[in-house]
Amino acid sequence: MKDKKIGLKRGLSVILASVCVLSLFASSIAQTWAGKINTFLGTSSFETVKTGESTSDGIYFESEFQSVKDVIDAKEALAREISQEGTVLFKNNGALPLDPASEKVTIWGLNALAPTFGGLIGSTTSVNYEAGQTTVTLIDALKENGVSLNEELLNLYNSSAADAYRRKAAFFGQEVPGHSLIPVFWPMFETADSYMIGEPPASFYTQEVLDAAKDTAAVVFLSRDSSEASDYAVSTMKDPNGDNFERPMALSDNEKAMIELAKANSNGKVIVVLNSDVTMEIAELKNDPAISAIVWAGLPGAYGFRGVADVLTGAVNPSGHISDTYAVNSVSAPSMQNFGLFFFDVADGTIDPGNDKGNWYIIETEGIYVGYKYYETRYEDAVLGQGNADGAAGVFASNGAWDYASEVAYPFGYGMSYTSFEQKLDSVEFNIGGQSKAVVTVTNTGSVPGKSVVQLYAQAPYIQGGVEKAAIQLVGFAKTSTLEAGASETVTVDFDAKYVASYDETAVKADGTQGAWILDAGDYYFSIGNGAHEALNNVLAAKLGSDEKLVKINEDEVISADNAKMVSVGEKDIETYSAGVQNQLQDGDIRKLLPERGVEFITRSDWSKGWDPVWGISPSEDMLKNLKNQVYELTENGEGETWDAGNGMRLIDMVLLDDNGNYQGTVAFDDPMWDTLIENVTLDEAVAFMKGAGGNFEPLNSIGLHMVTAYDGPVGFVSDQVPGYTANWTESESDEPTYVGPDSEYANWQMPTMPTEPVVAATFNVDLVEREGELFGEDSLWSNACSIFGPGLNNHRATYCSRNHEYYSEDSMLTNILGVAACKGGKSKGLMMEPKHFALNHQEANRSGTATFVSEQGAREIELRGFQGCMEGNYAQGVMTAFNRLGCVYAGAHRGLLTGILRDEWGYTGYVVTDMINGAEYMNWRDVTFAGGGGCLTENAYDSSIIGDPNSADNMKLIQKDTVFQQELKKMLKYDLYTFANSNTMNGVTTDTRVVRVHPWWEKTLTGVNWGSGILALLAFAWYLSSALRKKED
Amino acid sequence: MNNNKKITFGFVLAAASTVLSVVCAVLYKSAMMKDDRTYMVLIAAAAAGALSLILARVMGKEIPNLLLCAHAVLLMAALGISIAPMVNEMGLVFAGLNPQTNLSGFITYAVAAGIAWLISVVASFAGVTGK
Q1: Count of domains for chain A
Q2: Do residues A800 and A709 both lie within one domain?
Q3: Would the CB atoms of A170 and B96 count as touching at under 8 Å?
Q4: pLDDT tens string A606-661
Q5: Chain A residues in contact with B49 (beta carbon < 8 A)
Q6: Which domain covers residue A153, as residue numbers?
Q7: Which of A345, A380, A692, A903 has the fewest Cβ atoms nearer than 10 Å?
């Protein structure tokens, strides 16, 4: 009996001791994830304390609004305005605008009930329905605009009969309506075998429904999904519900059948609305006289369909212009030939796909010929009879010989209006080394008011066999105010000659370095037009003196030689735009890495070359070394750096105020005070900051920096209105007028609601984009999330990249100009705008570690130019690197890209962070830091890695010995701290502010459990041992 | 060695738990887990279990039972240590963004460690030494 009792006490002791051990580890894990837990619970582990010595109010960036509701309302209104101006009218035979007073409308398309508002993950449109927030579909918006809808078909769509056909993707374990793509973070070694279009077959429609649709205008809603971490596959895919299509961007059988039903059961008006950011194949709709109108709506966010409805009903006149080329066949661009899954030819086990993530690649053989720069350049060469442009290579829709009209449905920059405009290019000033401008007079020659976009294009002289040059490239644009019928406006389009220059990798400058921006001697043409094609036709008409051979593909095209101006440049210039420039990306060019493989790129000198997909590349030994991530090893070197100096300087001391306490910026970037400040940081803190930069930047208590909160993404902070705020501050300590308490009616309203970037781009309206940046800045002020992962500035290289919704365009200058505007707007409110993904993030399939091979000219003129404006001007204050490699080196650890170009050439002083660490070995913190890559997003991803947590005892020992590495850490800190000090991160912080560690309720609870279980375990053991000892004595 | 002692139920369970803890250590290593501390604690747990069994045969006093307690607590500690670095991956897998195979090795190890701990707890109630 006694033994039994002792056994019970022993067992109980073990259980209690185990609970205590478990509780201790749970506490340790919770501490590691404290930032996330605090954000989720709305608690904080740090408080600011003020001693009351400072006279400053600590408000360096002020809100223009009185309440968070005002911000929400302003964003809703702006979303509508962006969609009003971003909706593109492709075709209209007079069916539009609809007359709500006299016309009844039938909405065709099950997807209209659950449209795609935005792309999944980084640009997920998100609202809190429970809190009273809403999304607006086109159906809702048309009703709001007074349109009478045929409810018969809507009732059928709403019935259970339609359930089997509805799109629903699984995302974080929940079904998301309006999506079919399924995002995954692991490599996709196979293409998806199905894509659900989401439309029912013709048999679904009952005769009663069809009869009810007669005598109504048909609005046919066609939709394609978008998502991060997913791609469309080039190969034919099937719909699991039995629908079929030749390619996912082509119309499916069910969609075609629905359109036929709409044509047969309407009043003769059939209006197609495209809800897609990927370019669909719509030539058959364009060429079908029974299709009255085509309207592109894109993915317009939570409220943007109101803007689309305004266009459909004529409340506003459309003024959007498409930011991508609509090809007849969606895979006809050269870039699509090398898109998708390509694997290195290496023996099994040579590269470990799980850890190295170095087994796959893409080769961007198109060089600079992306989007319209391919179609239009080949068109010019076909017209001029050069370079085998009219050969059979690259033919996808032409009959035999390549011809433009058969290959392109709508050109880049095209868009119609309900009125007509005449644009006249009055003059062009082209100043190399100075500011250039074009003056254009725009007249509304129609009968209704409207806005007109002036698009200015340039053609640089191409020398056969010389540096590749596009026949036409956008260099600037402007939008008129609303012009009444008959009214005129003179518009000036400023542009920079450096963006007309081409990158010549072989040029040797006076200082002996190789690689330069060149302007060849010859004739430069500048022209305007409704899209790239019309502009090029104007150039060709001026060059040829006739429009005889020229091809029009839209009825409203006007060819005018007068709208092209020629400027001659006498001498080739290789120096003006090349100061500090030299080749930095030669290790990304497969032709240089493996010359014996003979990979061909697209070239104007012979359009028959460069079309073959490049399979089975065998990497060289040097390439393998990088693919296996064996780059920077920590070594013992130097005397070490000074840390933890205790000189008393804090970050707030770098903020400058005038005598009246008004914000005057910060101490200059090159002031040695920054070095003194950084010496106060401890090495442990610096390392923790490096590994924890991104999602939330870890606090630096030694210099008074609290946690800095950052979120995705391009359509607004992917969060609700307040948790970022409470993560940093508490109500009792906050003096900020923008404080939003958790009890606010709008506390849980979600912020990511704005239209996606292609819609924003289609506005061609810099003011609207800057305003969007300002309102993101307002969200920042009212939520205290200080950095946003956006805008996305990658290029729409490939149609089938399902992340194109996060990037503006296929054109680098449109991206460049809009990127500047967005970042300028955000910066004005102290928001750190963080463009992504630097650089060459062009596909999502196998995105982690994809070796992306590219010519340096292609990279600089197409991809990097999109980033250049906002980075060079330091409008962007952060930049997120890409998942892919540049050549064989991870883009976030490519020294040529990050230090050579970004820092040294562009003079960028903001911070750099990686994307989410999704491959800890190739995105390793050693290489990232050494290359000038800065911080690493997702601070806990190294925990289970081979390289290990940088703050672990073993790694800290190595870091303490490596002076070079410590110097790179200090550089990172300087860029980051300089940026923070120039942002609204400092709002509320004054010289008497101290950051104090506090223990939120969950932490106290865990501590209580630790102590409680520990004491109980000790008591139980004591009880057990005393019993055991007593038994021994007996 | 006192070979007259009976093999008790607790002894059998403790032996099973000890063997399982060795298996856990092997599973942990073979699953490419990176945290050496876990491995060391598992070895310590196995050592405590083994010592408990040996001493139970030669001593038959309470010390083997105390070692058995240590064995159980060390197993729980190994579980705790090993879970911490996997939280990030668990989040991705549970969200459906990473494949479940990323966790299969860890789950096998964790289930085995959990069972070993349960057995050791039952064994500690029963006691490794006979009357």
Answers
A1: 4
A2: yes
A3: yes
A4: 999 999 999 999 999 999 999 999 778 999 999 999 999 999 999 999 999 887 77
A5: none
A6: 88-319
A7: A345
